[in-house]
Amino acid sequence: MHNEAFKEKIEVELLKEAEDYFLELTDKMQGKFLRAFDKTESGLKGSWFEKLNSEDGIFEFRERDQEKFYRIFAFWDGESDSKTLILCTHGLDKKTNKTPKSDIERAIKIKKQYFKDKNK
């Protein structure tokens, strides 16, 4: 019998700040993000989830409507044997497609604290 390659499970998880942001979004925008999370958990790749141009492993889920751009920042935790986590740090909505450096730095800070707490 042929053994198939094991595909590691991917889970998107919202940390507290990201969850608070998500819950303040409209139902329509929540639905868009939930579809993006589902596609990412299924292993699909696309413009809805992109690595930022930094060396710190920060990604962002991207959605938009007619007036604004919406972002939820995230990073990967692949240290588990059973699954890979994508942890969402926080979110923002903005009028331009440019990502503020302060929000990237905030995501990096949350990521560092997460791994520090995890590895205690």
Question: Mind explaining what this structure looks like?
Answer:
The protein has 120 residues and is an alpha+beta fold. It has one domain: YaeB-like fold (2-Layer Sandwich), CATH 3.30.2310.20. Helix content is 35%, strand content 30%. The chain is built from three helices and five strands, in the order βααββββα. The protein has helices at residues 16-24, 27-41, 101-118, and strands at 9-14, 49-51, 59-64, 69-77, 83-94. A five-stranded mixed β-sheet has the order 1-5-4-3-2. A hairpin with a 4-residue loop joins strand 3 (59-64) and strand 4 (69-77). The N and C termini lie far apart (43 Å). Mean pLDDT is 90; it is low at 1-6.
Short characterization:
With 120 residues, the protein is α+β, with helices and mostly antiparallel strands.
Which features does this protein show?
single chain; 120 residues; alpha+beta; YaeB-like fold; 3 helices
CATH class: Alpha Beta
Distance, first to last CA: 43 Å
Poorly predicted parts: 1-6
Biggest β-sheet description: 5 strands, mixed
Briefly note the CATH topology name: YaeB-like fold
Number of strands: 5
Order of helices and strands: EHHEEEEH
Domain unit count: 1
What is the correct CATH architecture? 2-Layer Sandwich
**Largest sheet, order of strands side by side?**
1-5-4-3-2
Please identify which CATH superfamily we are dealing with: RelE-like
Give the number of helices: 3
